[in-house]
């Protein structure tokens, strides 16, 4: 666990939220950790919202926490989708780990998640969008990287900014950003 009071915003979700907003979707980000919510508080918030689509992001070290959140939220969401480094690394195996998932976004999600919502709204006709894995469908290659010049700025207005604390911050108002996509290195332990 992180030190109490120290957390950074989920910038990946903020970028996905900005893309969804720019496509006309209503979006809310819940950062239960930053808000210091208990599991029952988080579940109550999701039960009250009853989202059409619940999206989560997970890195491998936090996949068990995301899986628990999905299990607890599943009854209150029409669709559940996960993206981030963990499903990108393990591909369709994610559905064995978390059978409650309806879809997983593999790779960069800004464009894929918009196409996924359009696909669901159309009645899920034809193949899922590129970069999206759905149980029962043939899998396509991972999503193409979006045009970085078209990606909207992250939806920071959806984050509880006053709840974030940074170890090296010397004054309020300090934040983080993602300055690049991908990685130029070729570490032997990395799936890339």
Oligomer: single chain
Give the C-alpha Rg: 17 Å
Mean pLDDT: 85
Helix content: 25-40%
Task: Characterize the structure shown.
With 192 residues, the chain is α/β, with parallel strands linked by helices. The chain is built from 7 helices and 4 strands. Helix 1 (11-22) packs across helix 7 (110-121). It is globular and about 50 Å long. The mean pLDDT is 85.
Write the layout of secondary structure elements.
Elements: H1 11-22, H2 32-35, H3 39-49, E1 53-57, H4 63-73, E2 79-83, H5 85-90, H6 94-97, E3 103-105, H7 110-121, E4 132-133
Report a brief summary of the structure.
This protein is α/β, with parallel strands linked by helices and 192 residues long.
Provide keyphrases for this structure.
four-stranded mixed sheet; 192 residues; single chain; 31% helix; alpha/beta
């Amino acid at each position: 666990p992180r030190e109490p009071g120290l957390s950074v915003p989920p910038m990946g979700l903020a970028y996905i939220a900005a893309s969804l907003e720019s496509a006309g979707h209503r979006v809310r980000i819940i950062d239960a950790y930053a808000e210091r919510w208990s599991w029952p508080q988080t579940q109550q918030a999701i039960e009250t919202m009853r989202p059409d689509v619940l999206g989560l992001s997970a890195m491998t070290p936090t996949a068990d926490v995301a899986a628990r959140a999905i299990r607890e939220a599943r009854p209150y969401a029409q669709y559940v989708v996960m993206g981030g480094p963990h499903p990108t690394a393990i591909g369709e195996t994610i559905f064995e780990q978390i059978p409650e998932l309806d879809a997983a976004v593999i790779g960069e999600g800004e464009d894929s998640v918009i196409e996924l919502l359009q696909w669901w709204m159309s009645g899920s006709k034809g193949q899922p969008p590129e970069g999206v894995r759905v149980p029962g469908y043939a899998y396509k290659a991972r999503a193409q990287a979006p045009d970085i010049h078209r990606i909207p700025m992250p939806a920071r207005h959806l984050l509880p900014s006053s709840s974030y604390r940074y170890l090296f911050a010397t004054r309020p108002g300090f934040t983080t950003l993602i300055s690049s996509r991908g990685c130029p290195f070729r570490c032997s332990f990395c799936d890339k």
